[in-house]
Design brief:
Blueprint (H helix, E strand, L loop, with lengths): L2 H11 L9 E3 L2 E3 L5 E6 L4 E7 L3 H18 L4 H17 L1 H12 L3 H22 L6 E2 L5 E9 L2 E5 L5 H15 L2 E5 L6 H12 L7 E3 L4 H10 L3 E7 L2 H11 L5 E5 L5 E4 L5 H13 L11 E5 L3 H13 L18 H16 L3 E4 L3 E2 L9 E2 L2 E4 L6 H4 L6 E7 L2 H8 L4 E2 L1 E5 L3 H10 L4 E4 L14 E2 L2 E2 L12 E9 L3
Parallel strand pairs: 7-8, 7-10, 8-9, 10-11, 12-13, 12-20, 13-18, 17-18, 20-21
Antiparallel strand pairs: 1-2, 3-4, 5-6, 6-24, 11-23, 14-17, 15-16, 19-22
Helix pairs in contact: 3-5, 4-5, 4-7, 5-6, 10-11
The protein binds nicotinamide-adenine-dinucleotide.
Length: 495
């Protein structure tokens, strides 16, 4: 079926062909033993399927299978790992339509966004396929009496706790480097987006990934997610989600000294100086906050404007934002849905609280529905102007299509505002002054800075945060570090 047929069929029936049922353990979908939970289509606010809630025994079996498979996989020749990971990318592409439509229905994003996520998932497997046979150590010069070198060894079984905003690409950005490095995987997708990880596990198996190497267990974070974080067989835990759950996961992993990568979100600034083109700034800010309905850890949720261009930029931005037509992701809307009613209520609570403080809302500010059907969980694209640095709308992650605007006069002031939250994920600087762009980039306390563009970069670049945005890096060559441990070997040359 073409992607259009799949979409039409779903929109007409509310049902999506065959969905993976159970947990993917040791190379196959296993019947679930512990009850089910409804999965909702956010674009309609209606349940479309049920998924399985894993028992502790099922999670235990998945970790056991991964432990057994890791012992074998670390001995597989790097060239063979490379071949299999490239095949995964090919199989993902061949199934891109199915994956993307499933992702739209599970997450609420638009088909264009979901297709982009599936493509970048395939690219992540290609990228790390190319790394599998290049994980070299280095030779170290200790003088003529010794030969010394390092090797990079796989860490073993890795756990992956996946969020709901990028279910496919967050799965791929952890699983691909783990497999390239010789590790095995147990992944737990978010409660509201369980299906694509199961389908991806099936596709990995079809591509030749050995049984037990990648296991997917669905269920509640506080149950099986916590079990994964606590299990001493897990040697690296990769977590993406909220700061509160990240802290909890870190505490649970601490007694085993489990290695951790934490990707915990942000309140990332786009700074625009007086010499920037207001049209370009407005365009950058638009995509920075309204892509994926603002449900992005690295969303540009703060716009920090020089006072001289404030009026021009906000006029353009507010007008464009007010014309956005939200709708079900399969109907090619301008903006998709909010992932759950719980999350929609969190966004509304943030904005209602801002309204009660008397802030200036230039556009939006309330929940809405699919402009065609009147259904679904949506929030109006919202721009809040002229905020003070300590305003909660500046300090707290809202994780929705809500932009907080701050104003400045001097470069020092702009830097202080940009760094003035507890987060430090990414930042963007718009200016024609090269020297200033480099000074400000150097002053940003965050993991990534782009100049005169917001979403510059890709999976080839390391990505991750400072401060409460987390630690560790994913993507790029540095994304392999979490999955390897360095061993130094020294040989005495004495006769
Ligand atoms: P969350 O952090 O609770 O959930 C993320 C993942 O952690 C899910 O897979 C969940 O099942 C799992 N989890 C939950 N409790 C757990 C536990 N005790 N032990 C182990 N795993 C557990 O996030 P949420 O409640 O879905 O969203 C809350 C906020 O988190 C959002 O408003 C947003 O600000 C932030 N968030 C950030 C990202 C990101 O990309 N950094 C992604 C999703 C949510």
């Amino acid at each position: 079926m073409s992607v259009q047929d799949l979409a039409q069929d779903y929109l007409a029936t509310g049902k999506l062909g065959t969905l993976p049922d159970g947990h993917f353990i040791n190379g196959k979908l296993t019947a679930a033993s512990n009850g089910k939970m409804e999965s909702f289509d956010p674009g309609r606010a209606e349940a479309f399927a049920e998924f399985s809630l894993a028992s502790a025994e099922e999670m235990d079996a998945a970790i056991g299978a991964a432990e057994k498979a890791a012992a074998h996989w670390r001995r597989v020749a790097p060239g063979e790992r490379c071949r299999i990971l490239n095949e995964v990318a090919r199989v993902f592409r061949a199934n891109a339509d199915r994956l993307a439509v499933m992702e739209v229905i599970d997450s609420g994003k638009t088909l264009a966004e979901a297709t982009g996520d599936v493509n970048s998932s395939a690219r992540l497997f290609e990228y790390y396929a190319g790394a599998a046979d290049k994980l070299d150590g280095r030779s170290v010069n200790l003088g003529p009496d010794y030969t010394a070198f390092t090797v990079r060894e796989p860490v073993g079984v890795t756990g992956h706790i996946i969020p709901w905003n990028y279910p496919t690409s967050t799965f791929a950005r952890g699983v691909a480097p783990a497999l390239a490095a010789g590790c095995s995987v147990v992944a737990k997708p978010a409660e509201t987006t369980p299906f694509t990880a199961l389908l991806m596990a099936e596709l990995l198996s079809e591509a030749g990934v050995p049984d037990g190497l990648v296991n997917v267990v669905t269920g509640l974070g506080r149950d099986v997610g916590a079990q994964l974080a606590r299990d001493p067989r897990i040697k690296q835990l990769t977590f993406t989600g909220s700061v509160a759950t990240g802290v909890n996961v870190a505490q649970m992993a601490a007694p085993n000294i489990t290695r951790l990568t934490l990707e915990l979100g942000g309140k990332s600034p786009l700074i625009a100086f007086e010499d920037a083109d207001p049209e370009k700034v407005a365009d950058g800010a638009y995509w920075a906050i309204f892509s994926n309905s603002g449900q992005i850890c690295s969303a540009g949720s703060r716009l920090i404007l020089h006072k001289s261009i404030r009026g021009d930029v906000l006029d353009i931005l507010a007008e464009r934002a007010s014309k956005i037509k939200p709708g079900h992701g399969l109907r090619s809307p301008d903006m998709g849905a909010i992932n759950s009613d719980l999350h929609l209520s969190r966004i509304k609570a943030h904005v209602d609280a801002a309204k009660s403080r008397g802030v200036s809302i230039l556009t939006g500010g309330d929940v809405t529905t699919d402009c065609e059907t009147g259904k679904g969980w949506f929030f109006q694209p919202t721009v809040i102007a002229d905020l003070q640095p300590n305003d909660p709308a500046v300090q707290e992650e809202i994780f929705g299509p809500v932009l907080s605007v701050q104003n400045f006069e001097t470069e020092d002031e702009a830097i202080a505002l940009a760094n003035g939250t507890e987060f430090g994920l990414i930042a963007s600087v718009y200016t024609r002054d090269v020297g200033r762009s480099m000074r400000v980039a150097a002053a940003m306390d965050c993991g990534q800075v782009s100049i005169n563009d917001y979403w510059a970069g890709g999976l080839e670049l390391p990505f991750g945060g400072n401060k409460k945005s987390g630690y560790g890096r994913e993507k790029g060559w540095e994304g392999l570090d979490a999955y390897t441990k360095v061993k130094s070997i020294t040989v005495s040359n004495a006769s």
